[in-house]
Amino acid sequence: MSNVATDSSQLAQFVREAAATAGLAIAPEDFADVVTQFAVLARAAVPLMKFSLPEDVVAAAVFVPDDVSQR
Amino acid sequence: MTPEPKLSAIAAGVRSGATSALDVTRATLARIEDANPTLNAFTTVTTERALAVAGAVDAKRAARTDPGPLAGVSFAVKNLFDLEGLPTIAGSRIDAARAPAKRDAVLVRKLIDAGAVPVGALNMDEYAFGFSTENTHHGATRNPHDPSRIAGGSSGGSGAAVAASLVPLALGSDTNGSIRVPAAHCGVLGLRPTLGRLSRAGMRLFAPSLDVGGPFGRSVEDLALAYDVLQGPDPEDPTCSGRAVEPVMPVLDRGHDGIRIAVAIGHFASQGTPDVFAAVGQVAKALGVERPVDVPAAGIARCAAMIMTSAEGAELHLSDLISKAAEFDPMTRARFLAGTLVPGAWYAHAQRFRRWYCRQLAELFREVDVILTPVTPYPAHPIGQAFIELGGQKLSAAGHLGVFTQPLSFAGLPALAAPVVTAAETGSLPLAVQIVAAPWREDLIFRVAAAAERVGVLATPPPPTVRT
User: Quick check: is B285 catalytic?
Assistant: First the structure.
């Protein structure tokens, strides 16, 4: 989980391919800025993804009865 | 210098007939006309509507009907709140083409129902994605204390308008610090309530799992009065809690005895300039607080907040990013585009981390009730400054502004930014303290803030003279 790439050429390749997959046409003049911004996120992801969490920590929603009369 | 009148005093004057809502509103509109060309806090001034609403307040009084606790109080809102008859532009050019709002946002309605008078919409970073209100479409909002500097963001128009006393009350929104940062930079109070406390109906969202609306004001009492009016369940907003109103006005005089207050260390005691830490220390000293507290994994929480914000913000705007990316503000375009590419595993891990982090904070709040931290890592920087050197690191000057706010809002905590009366020479730039409590304990925040105000360590600086 902790092998987040931060190398700029790897990030540029990811941005190019992920954008194409998502149907996102990044204008050539914006491309370098998008890679820069994605690098900011990748740097944030490094410590986050290294942070190991117990298996019982889940993000599942908790559903409770919605008693509209209480609103 | 005569202090600015409190909201309660304005309303008392209107309710008693000593003045009229129309006179108050005309004076507000004149101040805006005078100073806004310099500050660029307002994107729209709703003169006609303001005079009509003020006239209705006066008519109520003439008919011996109570015009409300905010009778005649002028207010303005960040331009992501719906105002009937105006397109809700959220700092963008794209949304200016949307149909005008059919009715006011719920928080706007609550203020009007309490007698307040809407005078306009305020500038912000496009779609709230920023901390500086340097908006390419609508221009940068300038800090009233030094117009060459930013007002903070993304609710920069709200902070500047209240700091310059163009209005005594404003609404903003806070995802990662967007109320607290401009409040700190402009030297006013700004409250981020617990996520779920206030209705978001009629608010253009940025990152829905983090966004809240909240008030800006010039004193603890003003903020408390407005906050009490804004509270309450809302069937139009499923994220708004069904909790009954828990008014804070009655607790302002209770003092801070018995409240376990601590000063945050670790993450919250580095990555800033000495003056911001000294300001927090000054508040702690004035309140007799010596206890330190370390918020666990706060730095990771900030990272997770960045990932979630980017992904959620990009998802909300995905169709526009695909079809008309060129129409986004160059200040936000690359950030939104990058957000569309966040891997699912990063987002999912950030969500799981939040669950763990909230548990840790729940444990921490068994030991302390209120935490003091800085709001921003440095005072307002010059408009256009891209980077700042700090501790040998070259950082994004605006991007780093959320370092102390993001880890707290990430857990949905309520937090207040309030200006500190400092002895330090920092030019004319305000410094602030962040007062934080467990979810739903805004009452403790207000008690501590009121106590700090009483001992003179917390106060809004007088509005600077701003003329065009």
Answer: no
- Whether this model's ipTM surpasses 0.85 comes out as yes
Range of the domain at A55: 1-71
Interchain CB contacts (distance < 8 Å): A and B: 103
Which domains does chain B carry?
Answer: 8-454 (3.90.1300.10)
Angle at B174 between CA B428 and CA B25, to 5 degrees: 70
Q: How far is CA B231 from the centre of its chain?
A: 16
Task: Point out the residue among A14, A34, A67 whose CB comes nearest to the CB of B334.
Answer: A34
Per-residue pLDDT in tens (0 to 9) along chain B, 468 residues: 567 899 999 999 999 999 999 999 999 999 999 999 999 999 999 999 999 999 999 999 999 999 999 999 999 999 999 999 999 999 999 999 999 999 999 999 999 999 999 999 999 999 999 999 999 999 999 999 999 999 999 999 999 999 999 999 999 999 999 999 999 999 999 999 999 999 999 999 999 999 999 999 999 999 999 999 999 999 999 999 989 999 999 999 999 999 999 999 999 999 999 999 999 999 999 999 999 999 999 999 999 999 999 999 999 999 999 999 999 999 999 999 999 999 999 999 999 999 999 999 999 999 999 999 999 999 999 999 999 999 899 999 999 999 999 999 999 999 999 999 987 555 579 999 999 999 999 999 999 999 999 999 999 999 998 866
Number of domains in chain A: 1
How far is it, in rounded angstroms, from Cα B15 to Cα B37? Answer: 32
Which two structure tokens, joined as six digits, stand for B127?
């779609």
Residues in chain A closer than 8 A to B242 (CB atoms): 67, 70-71
Residue of B nearest to A65 (CA): B242
Q: Which residues of A touch B (CB under 8 A)?
A: 1, 14-15, 18-19, 22-27, 30, 33-34, 36-38, 40-41, 44-45, 47-49, 51, 53-54, 57-59, 67-68, 70-71
CB atoms within 10 A of CB B190: 34
Is B78 known to be catalytic?
Answer: yes
Q: Is cis: bond before B154, omega within 30 of 0?
A: yes
Spatial distance between the Cα atoms of B152 and B133, rounded to a whole number of angstroms: 6
